[in-house]
Each structure stands twice: as C-alpha cells, then as structure tokens.
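tool=predict chain=A
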Amino acid sequence: MSVSVLQILSVLLVLACLAAVFFAMAWYRVRDQHNSLNGHLQASESQYRQLLGVADLAIAVLDEACHVVDWNPVLERLYGLSRHEMLGRQFFMCCAPGGDAAALSARMMAMRGSDAVLEFSFPVQANPDNERQLRWRARHFTDARDGRRYLSLVGHDVTDVESMQQWLADSEARFRLMFEAVPASLALLDAEGRLLMVNPACARFFGYDAPEQMVMLNVQELVHEDDRQASMMALAALHQQPDTLYQMEKRYLVRDGQVRWGNMRCRLLSLAPGQSLLLAQISDVHERKQTEMALFESERRMATLIANLSGAVYRYELPALRQGLHHDRPAAFLSDGTSILTGQMMSPFARGQQPHSLGALILPEDRPVLQAALESAFAGSGRFDVTYRLRHGPSGIRWVSESGCVQQRPDCSWTVDGHITDITAERHARETELVFRTLVTQSHTGFVSLNLDGRVLDANQPFCAMAGVESPEQLLGRPLELFMPPGREGQLQRFLARVIRDGVLRDVEFTLPGLDGRQVRLLVNALTVEQAGQSAIKCLLVDLSRQPGAPSGDAEDRLESVISMLEEQDGIA
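tool=predict ok
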C-alpha cells in the first residue's frame, strides 16, 4: 500500500508539533530554574549585605591582589571612608601602618593557594584623639561563580580588651610590689591551708632565706602542736562564715625549731564559684608576748609579796597643786593589809568613802610630823620615813612606821608609794628593854644574854664582877663556860638544855666557888626569848651569899619586876 505524500506530511507535522511542545516545556523549565537561582542569589546577596550591615566586626573582601572588593559599615566608621571610596584600592597600603603594609600584602598574596587562617593586628587611627587596636583573621576562599580566589578579612576591635589586660597586668604588678614590699608578713593559702605565695617578710619571720622555700608548705605544720587544733577549727569555721575576719595569737615553729609568737589575721577571698583563697597577715608579737608574760610574772610576784608583807602597801596619785596629806585623798591602791592595820573593813577604803581614809585615823597631834616628812620628800629628797600613831578599831591606838617615795610625772602630777607597818610591839619591847636595863643597872642583879650555844650576847656590870672580868666587852661573843670554875662546864650545859627544853626556869640555886675561895650562892632565873629573829637565853643572877638569908624585900621586888618584864618582852616578841 502506498503512502501518500499527504500522510507523510501529516506525520511530520505531528512530530514537529510534539517537538515544539517539548522544546517549549524545556525552555520554561530552564527559565524557571534560572529565575529560582537568581532569586536564591538575590536572597543570599541580601542576607550577606544585611550581615555586613549589622555586624559589629570589621569585614572586608579582597581580590588576589589585595584590592578591596567589599567594605562594611564598621570599617567606614573606623576609617571615615565609604565603601564606594575604597572599592578597588589596595587594602594594606591604605589601612595598615606604613611599616607593616608591604609585608602584610606580600604575605597575603603568598598564601593565595592555602585555606589556612592567618592572624595579625595593627592600630587604626579613627581620629586624632582615638586610636583603636584591631586584631584580624584572614582566610582565602574560591568564589564558585567565577572560580576566582578572594581573601576575607574579619577584624575585632580589641582596644578595650587590651586596655583591660594592661590594667590587669599593672594591677598584678602593683599587687606583687605591695605584697613583697610591705613589712608585715603576708601569705596566700588555698582551701587546704597550703601556702601558694608568701612575701619576704613572712619568709624572714619563719627563718627561711627565700619565699620560694615555703611554697606548698601547709601552714598547720608551722603552728605549735599545742595551738594546732584550735587553729584548724578556726580556719574550718572561716570557710563556713566567709565574711568573718579570723584572728588568733598563737605560737609558730620557725625553721630552726624555736617557738615564736605571731598574731594571724585571715580573711576568705572568693574568686569564683567553688574557688577561694585565704589571705593571711602574721604580725610578729613575740617581744610583746614575752613582755606580757614577764609583766604577768612580775605582777604575780608583786601580788605575792604584797600579800605576805605585814602592814599596808599604798599608792596615791596627787595633782600638781597638792594640798594636805596624801592619806586624806582616796588611794589609787591599798593592799588588804590595811584592814589588819586599822582594824576596820577594807571595802570603804577601796571606795574612798569618808571618814574611811587613812588620814582620818592619824592622831591630830601627829599629823604635823607626817606633813613635814612629806614636804621634805617633795622638796628634793624624794623619800621619807616617819613614825606616828594611828587609831585602830573602835578605841585602840597603834604606833606605825611609814616609809615611802614621791615621784613627779611629766604632766607635773605626783605619785606617792609607800609601806606602813605596825611597830607597836617593837616600840613596847624597846620601852620594856629600856626599863629593864634601868632596873638591872640600878641593882646588884647580874644579867647575861646567851645564844643557844652558850656564847655571851650581852651582860651588865654586876655579872662581869661575878665572872671576874672588868667590862662586858671581855665577855661578848665568847663561850660562858670559859669563865666557869674547872669541872663545872657540864653543869652549864645541863642548865642550858633545861632552859631550852622548858622555856623558863625560876629560882634555881647554884653554888660555885668564888674568886676569893668562899662559896658563892647564886639564885638564877632564865627564859628563852626571840631576839632579832634568833633565839636567846636571858638570865638574872642574884648573889645570895652577900647577905645571909633570903634577899631583901626591895631586891626581891626588883627581881620580880625584871622577870615580869622579860616574860612580857618575850610575849611581845
């Protein structure tokens, strides 16, 4: 069957229509893709421009020859040049300092084939009074659109950061200078008490040659073992109460093993959450503690001495224009012996209540004597000793001896320190001794005083006649047995032993051969007394052989008086 031309043309026409439709569809598809790509490109370009506009970093894009391709607003503000003014200009020649421009440009172009990140920095003179420091990060990239290599630059203004770093460095330098130069001992410790940093003064306090020798030592190892537990508890409490100032005086062990007192003041420094340091200052108080302990011991000894002294110890503080007796004023100090001395309660004297002052107890007729002695001391001698009478209790009177010294202070005020003792017994004893010697001297009664070994301490003239010597000086200090008849030494020893044992012997007769060969009858009375802090034996001897029979009434009366005085003197002693 033959195909007509018309059929062939119809087929060709259909095929042509189909081809036209296909090509039309392909063209519309390509156009849509192109439009989509342009849309994405425009959106990307828009986002890129927005990024450049809002970024707070300096951003520039350079070509392979380092000419400016793009320039963001931050750079416009820094350099004062718009994007259009900078496009096509060599970046480093325009923006970098003259000495660094060529080197940086050559370095960037040499790294065109590398994707490595390069870092550099240089200052930007934004205006004559404001220089900013920029730190740049640069990296090459390939643009997919044209296949060319470009250089992206991102600059960060580090002026404030570097200023802060410089300030921190200066602050650190000042801290170290102060830390090392301050004369007080300073140390930084971690939470466990390890020494992280010490200054030279602290090293010298502990006896080390350099601060580095103490680093990483635990401070508790330097504390005396008796104070270590209290120190550890105090530091532990400091961590629980960070705002507390810890202070403690304690003993430290220095490098040579000696003990040294120090006062530690410590505060917790919180650096960050979970991080803290201890700043400690150790003051050398060793000499003060030694002085305090010496003063305490001195005061203790003084208090013991005053407590054991008989009588009253006092101190008065008088103004520059003094008037009257010091005892008329309230005392700055009165010992407890005042109560015994005056026979009155101590508390009113301590409060200075009237009439409870020592001046009110002095007999009026004796006040001028004390006033004269005191004025003499004020006038220049500085010391005074005086004896006067003082009322005691409700109606008694005591003789007292007062010794004191006056001293003027820099402010012209005065202090009067002294000691008052009761000498009533001693005065009575002296008066008794005087009467006793008068009675003995006016009679023929012999008197001799011996120590417990039998050596003569005192004797009167009648006894010298009995002993066959001319004066008492020939007897003093010598054993009495030297003047006894031969063979009678044992009798003397037995006599002394009996007196020492019984304390007193009355009316004991001795018969001794006299110097003229006749028998001498002696009536002896003896007793043991305390004399000048030592025991002594006082003896009275009456020669009964002078008159036969008993002694006369007058002699007997005088003998009894003397014995009574001796016994009274012994009781007083």
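The chain has four domains: 55-162, 182-288, 309-422, 427-572. The longest strand covers residues 259-272.
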